[in-house]
Every structure is written in structure tokens, then in C-alpha cells.
Write a structure and sequence with these properties.
Blueprint: E1 26-29, E2 34-36, H1 40-51, E3 57-59, H2 67-71, H3 83-86, H4 103-116, E4 125-133, E5 138-146, H5 158-171, E6 187-194, E7 197-199, E8 206-207, E9 221-224, E10 238-242, H6 246-257, E11 261-265, E12 272-274, E13 276-277, E14 280-281, H7 282-290, H8 295-310, H9 325-332, E15 337-339, H10 342-347, E16 352-354, E17 360-362, E18 370-372, E19 382-386, E20 389-392, E21 397-399, E22 402-405, E23 409-410, E24 443-445, H11 452-474
The structure holds flavin-adenine dinucleotide.
């Protein structure tokens, strides 16, 4: 890269706070690839580049690495897949780790990983816009830098930032430009430029909460699973858990173990499989079988064994989808639930499943009385929240002290990356697996294949090799380069 970088076009000037625009203060020219996100995917790319002697810059909005695992995951979280599948490239998990490492184990591993490969992300640095500038063949990445002295670093999510960004772009007058750049705001807008941009902000960047009517009326506590820490504070409480994926099941189990009464609202069909079959992990077994057998045959095998081990889940209100678990995952990205104990509690009635085939209904806590109603009378979908519970679409009401939305997450890439050719409306690469890791003009995406940590590691290795190749051509003078 040579010559002076021309100033960015005016459209890149951002206002992340909804106040008048803060002009870009600095332009940081990078000879290294820029990686957005210091979760497992971003770290895996940076480590793989480091092994090839290619430096990188990691920009992370949070106050440390692996924000999802440190701040947005519940206490009882264990990796759903065995450790052999979850370790990142070039560094194995310590031998003493259990087969299914806990959240704390995994965070510890990620810290050692960053240390081992000398990775030093820039924290408190939210990427709010990025576009390729053809005039200089560089990516221009606009960041808002939160100086971390005593301020929450994520007071605004990038999507909120982008919303206020577009609003302010409409309303900003010349007069107001620069007036908000008070030093006490501890904010700085920095533009990084580089020939390579790696998107590693994850499929779980922002929580998804359904827009239910009556949310303001509900007097109990209401939160997303990313804010749930432990069932301790729910002892004796009736808690509606909306969603029946791995998180919903884990939360119900945790609530039960802490003496709460969880009710799981199930909207769609779901595959529940035992975490292990024949003493080995179901995931590992499926991977082995797929080497020899067609996918549908493996699906049939998994479902037959699942029925033998955990019984007919439909009896407990968990209807199975028509497609098999692996085929469904491939087509829709929907992950099967790997049961770690919730199913036994559902079977024993300690977790109530609220869906059309439920046979029981609880009245509000004030009239704590059990009713039996006929099959099919309770509808699964919450229509609205009421002051003391939820109303279902058949008009019936149930009382709850708290509602937890285990309703998943979404990508935030479309809120900041301007490349609609490569990125879909859902914020993931449009190109289907396994080719979505590489876009045009030095753009890469890691961790968007719906294949968890194993998928992220596979992407990371390919991306690092590809970048290293072009980095080597661009900077042949760098002697310590290994490919
Ligand atoms: C509860 C839960 C349990 C899971 N368990 C497993 C499991 O057992 N096995 C498995 O394989 N997968 C699991 N997953 C999936 C899991 O999310 C990933 O495998 C893993 O965390 C993906 O890593 P990532 O780096 O792609 O994304 P993330 O871990 O989400 O990291 C993305 C990083 O980007 C940062 N970021 C986002 N936007 C910006 C921005 N605009 N500017 C700067 N930084 C930004 C975030 O703060 C974050 O640190 C689980 C997910 C959840 C929610």
C-alpha cells in the first residue's frame, strides 16, 4: 500500500449515539488484515494467520475476548459437543478438561489461546460501518471507540447504532457537526483501512425477542436467555420459558434444579436426541456414519436409537419435524437439541410443556389450582403478555412470575457491512456452504455456516491460508513469512 489515503466519502461519517455527527478523528492505515470480532472465530483466524507470520488487527466491541461466553451465557452452560470437536485450530484443549467442558473451562481455554498466539484485540471498539473503496482498493472500516474507563462498553448495540446513524444522517445540519465530540464522552471515531476484512461477528450477535403485545403490562420479570445467569433467584416461581432449543431446555433444567416451576412454550416441532449413544457422543457418531452412509439413512438410524433411548418425545408434547435432524440442520440451520437431562424432567412433569397437545393447564398463581383439559385445547403460541402472565392464541391465560425468551439470536452484519451482493438479509453469506467464507475484494466471513465451533475452525484455516497467499504477494519483503 503506498501513497496518501484520500479522505473517506461523506456517507461514512457516522453518529452512533443519535446526537449530532462525530467526525472521523483518525484514519489508521493497516498493512494487516482487519478482523471484526474477538470471539472463537475471530481468534481462530488471527491465530492461524499468526502461524503463517501474518499480523492482524482484531476489533472487538466488548471489554474482552469471547463476550458471548463471558457475559451472555448462563452459568450452567457446558459445550454441547465433545471437546474434540470444539477446540480451535493449532491448540488442543488441556487433557484434564472433561469431555464436555463448562463455560468457565472454555473461557479459560480461549484466554490461553489468545495468549499462546500473542493476540491482542482492540477492545471497546465497535464497527459501525465498512465498505470497499474501489478508488484505493481498500476496505474502510469505521469504528466507535469507547474508552473503557468506567463506562459500559456496550451501551448501544451496533444495530441501535446503525438506526441512529441513519436517522442522524437525515437530520444532521452543518452547524451540529462536531458539537458532540466532547472529550468527557470518551468516544472516538476511528477509520481503519486495509486490503482485507474478515467478518467474525458471529451468528449470535444480537438477541431476538418476539414483539409480543402486552409487554409493558406484564408486572413480572422478563428477560432474554442471554441475560439469564442462574435459577437461584427464581426459587418457588412460575417461569414461562419461550423456546425449546438447547438454551430453552438448559434453562428449564436449571430452573427445576433451583426449585422453580418452568413452563416451556413450544411453537414448532423439534428434534431431541440423547447427547450420547452407545457410550459415544451422538454428534461424533453421526459424523463417522456420514463418511459411509447417505444422510437420510444416518437420520433414520439416529431417530431409531433416540426412540430406544429416550422414548417417543411426541408423548410429552415435543413433536418431531418431518425432516430428519441432519437434513433439517443442513436445509434450515436448525440444530437438534442434545438432551442433558431436561427430557427426564419433562417426562416426570417437573417441566411443563405448553403446546397444542398439552393436557394440563395452570391458573394464575392467585388461584393455584390444577385443571385438566382435553387434548388439543392449549395452543402453543403466546398471543400476548398480560399483567400477571401470558395469553395464548386460543384465549386462555396462565399466570407467571417471570418470562424468559430463549428465542435465539441474529447476525448484525447487515447493520454495518455494505456489501449486499455477498451478504443476505439475514446477515450471513449468500453463497451456500462450503463456499461462503470468501467474498470479493479481500472480504471473508468466518463462523456463519451454522456449524458451530467445528465449522468456524474449518473456515478460519482456509481464510488464513488465502490471506497469507495474497499478503505474501503484496509484501514480498517480509522475510519471516511461512506458507
Ligand atoms: C448459549 C450458547 C451455547 C452454545 N454452545 C455451543 C457449543 O457447545 N458448541 C458449538 O460449536 N457452538 C455453540 N454455540 C454457538 C456459538 O455461538 C459458537 O460456536 C461460537 O461462540 C461462535 O463464535 P463466533 O466467534 O463466530 O461468534 P461469537 O462468539 O458471537 O463472537 C463474535 C464477537 O464479535 C463481537 N462483535 C459483534 N458485533 C461487533 C461489531 N459490530 N464490532 C465489533 N465487535 C463485534 C462480539 O462482541 C463477539 O465477541 C453456542 C451458542 C450459544 C448462544
Amino acid at each position: 500500500m503506498s501513497g496518501r489515503i484520500p479522505p473517506p466519502p461523506p456517507t461514512v461519517t457516522v453518529d452512533p449515539l443519535g446526537t449530532p455527527n462525530i467526525p472521523i478523528r483518525r484514519v489508521a492505515e493497516a498493512r494487516s488484515p482487519i478482523i471484526v470480532g474477538a470471539g472463537p472465530s475471530g481468534l481462530a483466524v488471527a491465530a492461524s494467520l499468526h502461524r503463517l507470520s501474518v499480523p492482524s488487527i482484531i476489533l472487538e466491541r466488548s471489554d474482552g475476548i469471547a463476550d458471548l461466553w463471558r457475559h451472555r451465557a448462563y452459568g450452567r452452560l457446558f459445550l454441547h459437543l465433545p471437546k474434540a470437536f470444539c477446540q480451535l485450530p493449532h491448540l488442543a484443549f488441556p487433557a484434564h478438561f472433561p469431555t464436555y467442558p463448562s463455560k468457565a473451562d472454555f473461557v479459560q481455554y480461549l484466554h490461553s489461546y489468545a495468549h499462546h498466539f500473542s493476540l491482542h484485540p482492540i477492545f471497546g471498539c465497535t464497527v459501525v460501518a465498512a465498505h470497499f473503496d474501489p478508488a484505493v482498493s481498500l476496505w474502510r472500516v469505521t469504528t466507535v471507540w469507547h474508552h473503557l474507563s468506567g463506562r459500559p462498553v456496550q451501551s448501544n448495540s451496533p444495530s441501535q447504532m446503525s438506526e441512529s446513524l441513519s436517522e442522524s444522517s437525515r437530520s444532521t445540519s452543518e452547524e451540529s457537526v462536531g458539537s458532540s465530540a466532547e472529550p468527557e464522552e470518551l468516544l472516538e471515531v476511528v477509520e481503519y483501512v486495509s486490503p482485507w476484512l474478515v467478518v467474525a461477528t458471529g451468528e449470535n450477535a444480537e438477541p431476538v425477542v418476539p414483539k409480543l403485545k402486552g409487554r409493558e403490562e406484564f408486572k413480572g420479570s422478563m428477560l432474554h436467555s442471554s441475560e439469564y445467569k442462574s435459577g437461584k433467584e427464581y426459587k418457588g416461581k412460575r417461569v414461562l420459558v419461550v423456546g425449546c432449543g438447547n438454551s430453552g431446555m438448559d434453562l428449564c433444567l436449571d430452573l427445576c434444579e433451583h426449585g422453580a416451576m418452568p413452563f416451556m412454550s413450544v411453537r414448532s416441532a423439534v428434534h431431541v436426541l440423547p447427547r450420547e449413544m452407545f457410550g459415544t457422543s451422538t454428534f461424533g457418531l453421526a459424523m463417522k456414519l456420514l463418511k459411509w452412509l447417505p444422510l437420510r439413512m444416518v437420520d433414520r438410524f439416529l431417530l431409531t436409537v433416540a426412540r430406544m433411548v429416550i422414548g417417543n418425545t411426541e408423548k410429552y408434547g415435543l413433536k418431531r419435524p418431518e425432516l430428519g435432524p441432519l437434513e433439517l440442520k443442513n436445509i434450515t440451520g436448525k440444530t437438534p437439541v442434545l438432551d442433558v437431562g431436561a427430557l427426564t424432567l419433562i417426562r416426570n412433569g417437573r417441566i411443563q410443556v405448553v403446546n397444542p397437545s398439552s393436557l394440563s393447564l395452570f391458573l394464575p398463581p392467585s388461584q393455584a389450582k390444577f385443571l385438566t383439559i382435553s387434548h388439543g385445547q392449549i395452543v402453543l403460541e403466546v398471543e400476548s403478555l398480560t399483567s400477571n402472565g401470558a395469553k395464548f392464541v386460543d384465549g386462555r391465560e396462565m399466570g407467571y412470575d417471570s418470562v424468559v425468551f430463549a428465542t435465539g439470536y441474529r447476525s448484525n452484519v447487515t447493520t454495518w457491512l455494505q456489501d449486499s451482493d455477498f451478504i443476505s438479509e439475514g446477515g450471513k453469506p449468500k453463497t451456500p456452504f462450503p463456499h461462503g467464507w470468501k467474498g470479493k475484494n479481500g472480504l471473508y466471513c468466518v463462523g456463519f455456516t451454522g456449524r458451530g465451533l467445528p465449522g468456524a475452525s474449518a473456515d478460519a484455516i482456509k481464510i488464513a491460508l488465502d490471506i497469507a497467499e495474497s499478503w505474501k504477494k503484496k509484501y514480498p519483503e517480509r522475510k519471516n513469512f511461512v506458507l
